[in-house]
Amino acid sequence: MNRLFKLAAVFLTAGMLAACAGVDQRTTDTYLLCSVAGGVVGGAAVGSVSGGAGAVGGAVAGSQLALVLCNPEGEVPAEAAPAPVCDVPPPAGALTDENGCAFDSDKDGVVDGIDMCQNTPEGVEVDSVGCPLDSDRDGTPDYKDLCPGTPLGVIVDADGCPLAGENILSLTGVNFAFDKAVLTAEAEGTLDQAVALLKETDDVLEVRVEGHTDSVGSEAYNKDLSQRRAEAVVDYLVAQGVNSTRLVAVGMGEGFPVASNDTDAGRAANRRVDFVVVE
Predict the structure, then answer these.
(1) What is the mean pLDDT of residues 174-184?
(2) Which of 19, 47, 85, 111 has the fewest CB atoms within 10 Å, counting from its CB?
(3) 198: exposed, middle or buried (C-beta count within 10 Å: 0-12, 13-18, 19+)?
(4) Per the confidence metrics, is the pTM higher than 0.85?
(5) What is the rounded CA–CA span in Å between residue 277 and residue 246?
(6) What angle do CA 27, 29, 31 make, to 5 degrees?
(7) Mean pLDDT, range 213-242, rounded to an integer
(8) How far apart, in Å, are the Cα atoms of 230 and each of 41, 106, 183, 239, 277?
(9) 3-class DSSP string for the chain
(10) pLDDT (tens digit, 9 = 90+) per residue, 18-36?
(11) Nearest partner of 172 among 223, 222, 211, judged by Cα
(12) CA-based nearest residue to 238, from 182, 195, 205
């Protein structure tokens, strides 16, 4: 009879420990249950053999063995890690992940949902809506623009350079001494705008310098006057360091007005110098 009791206790111990070993949950409650069950069964099994004193040791050994079997990888039960906290609260309209943190797919500093220009290349400076800067507003972003500083309204190619035959700068009010092709001080100050632009595009552009007049005087006279004034402008540009081989002086006369010659304001607008890109 005593042997049967011992045998039953052994099978009961093995069964309880096997059940614990089959538990796949790693929670604190599961480990506690396994430990208690192992202690009870271990104490009963050993106590049946050696009495009360042995039962205590059996309980301790059973609980430890149960923990080992329930945790075969040696992991220590721990509380679940807290969800990560976003460094910066996402702005209104931002796309967020499961933790409420905003995405910034192209890493340009403007989060998805607000970024109007996705996939901006790394390191490119962008504006408040994530689009590359376009300082001269010609439609070609600064990081691609081979001709920075193009005047507003000028049509450009894919590299941001003015198309052949398009004005790159129109200077109104370039005044000359009366009936002469001599630049005034005010005219020279205005032409300094052209000097800066032409130096920036030194390796890209060839430019025709066109002189225009109003309709006062004969057409032939205005044609000759506009030619001499265009040449005076070229001379000034070259003296300021612009490469002379890139400049062609052409007198256009009165035949290409941009305003009516019937008013003082219109005639003033027609007395101008245009810089045009040529092949």
Answers:
(1) 71
(2) 85
(3) buried
(4) no
(5) 10
(6) 75
(7) 91
(8) 111, 50, 10, 14, 15
(9) CHHHHHHHHHHHHHHHHHHHHCCCCCCHHHHHHHHHHHHHHHHHHHHHHHCHHHHHHHHHHHHHHHHHHHCCCCCCCCCCCCCCCCCCCCCCCCCECCCCCECCCCCCCCCCCCCCCCCCCCCCCECCCCCECCCCCCCCCCCCCCCCCCCCCCCECCCCCECCCCEEEEEECCCECCCCCCECHHHHHHHHHHHHHHHHCCCCCCEEEEEECCCCCCHHHHHHHHHHHHHHHHHHHHHCCCCHHHEEEEEEECCCCCCCCCCHHHHHHHCEEEEEECC
(10) 444 444 444 545 544 454 4
(11) 211
(12) 195
- Give the other-Cβ count within 10 Å of 141's Cβ: 19
Percent share of the chain, pLDDT over 90: 15
Task: Tell which residue, 210, 248, 201, 207, has the closest CA to residue 229.
Answer: 210
224 backbone dihedrals φ, ψ, rounded to 5°: -65, -40
Amino acid at the residue 233: V
Extract the tokens encoding 154: 């000028």
**Is 148 in contact with 141 (CB distance < 8 Å)?**
no
- Which tens digits make up the pLDDT trace of 122-155? 889 999 889 999 988 888 999 998 887 776 667 7
Determine the distance from the C-alpha atom of residue 211 to the mean position of all C-alpha atoms in its chain, rounded to a whole number: 44
User: How many CA atoms are closer than 13 Å to the CA of 138, on its beta-carbon side?
Assistant: 25
Q: Which residues of 156-167 are buried (b: 16+ CB within 10 A; e: fewer)?
A: beeebbbeeeeb
